[in-house]
Batch of 3 targets.
Target 1
Amino acid sequence: MSISASAASFERGPVALTYLDIVLVLVAAVPALALGAPAVGYGVAAAVYILQRLVSVEADRRLAEMTDYRRRIGLGVAIAMTRVWALAATIMIVGVTVARADGLTAALVIFGAFSANFARSAISHMTETRRAAS
């Protein structure tokens, strides 16, 4: 997905669909914690994921405004890699400092939210491509 298409989809899509991954993280917290998921692992992973996702939305908006295409691509890749490293570091830190079960919970929360966002992004990109083609 191009950076500009990604940023444009945030502006045009319904808010609930744009932030579906965040909504899923928050809604899944109730049954997960009620069924005994480690609270620290879930809470830390949810907080870090939501924070990095909101930062990513703002970064995509600013990248879309950039006129230098090479710089935009370079910064976009750097931001995407930083997001992945921040999430991976969160999983490792929680797993080492708290407990392995908390680390596993953090990994599952982040993987689930990241997957939901990836699927939403792919579907959004496919529908935009089809609209542009017709």
Note: The two ends are 19 Å apart (CA to CA).
Target 2
Amino acid sequence: MNRLAVTADDFGLMPCINDGIIALARAGRISSASVMCHDEAALERAPELASCGIRTGIHLVFSGEAGMPCDYRRLFVKTLLKPAALEEVRAAAQKQIARFLSLGLTLDFINSHQYAHLIPHIWRTLQGVFEKHPGTAIRLPRHAPCGLKSSLLYVSSGLCSWISPAKGRRILSPFGIDQAGGMVAKHAGALLERISQTTLPAGCTAELVMHPGLENAELKTRYAAWHYNWRAEYDLLMSEAFQDMLVKMGLQYDRD
């Protein structure tokens, strides 16, 4: 069977998201979780991930939270026009990784909120940070895209690889970019079929990127602009229908 990393992004966003991700991990319904470690991240339960039998990685945050550019577009412009802002990004990455490691978690992989690490000049800036952690995997699209967002990221990641190839490093090639926050069974079935038919380069693992969690009124209000349905993605991953799709497509969780 082909191995698939099923990753829950955004641990640390809010406690209700954390509760959902930990429940999924303990039920064996995800293989990995990426943890936000910016100053405002909710990390009270993060050490529990170490005993859940999943891979853990950092979800670097450079935009979309307090004191940061509101989204990756503003981040792109700010770091392009103000070289000093790139040093702020580097320092933020180092600080967030240090906080992650202080939680007692293993740094198995690195990715970022809104795929900011794949902005070419930010990618170049972060190489020194990445090199301090040579055993970690990096989220980097390596398969043909099928939507607008994934197409833009595919082009951007190609530029990143040209600027500084990720030699000798395990690559996680993300599927589900265009369905972020709105993954339903129909989407998942089509993506899993596509994954089962995709041949990736050596050293690459397919990754299904999910944004599951439990919800409350505060979450829905604070992040209303995202238009995410965290609970629907949680329910999908917990469902027997999703497990049946994995088996049907000859896929198994990438846990070791």
Note: The first helix runs from residue 15 to 26.
Target 3
Amino acid sequence: MDQQGLLILRRNLDAFIRADPVMVTFTRSTPVQTLTGSHTKGNPTPINPQQFRFVPFKRRLSKSISNTQDGPLSLTEYVLVGRHNVDVQKGDEFSHNNRNYKVTEIEPRTDDRSTTDRVTIALEVRD
């Protein structure tokens, strides 16, 4: 995609997010090695607040569906959609409306987001 087309997509996404924004402050825990050599969750460090939009999950991420006796069950009710330059990592956590969430998947699955207009984040409810 050319730079002009990418700029248009990013502007459209920005308007989409600003229409119904959610401010999210992720906390990130760095693993700490114990004396026995295993790792435990370290002290959580808050990341600066960032603007996203909650979007109903459309079953695009196949790992977020569980096959049950009654048929497929979505394990993710919503995904977060953010700008291409958001600071998020798998395992980050946040709270919103008295619910705790954990990041389980991030698309695109690359650190180079220079050619994309958005980041889509799959969540797990941690209540």
Note: The longest strand covers residues 99-107.
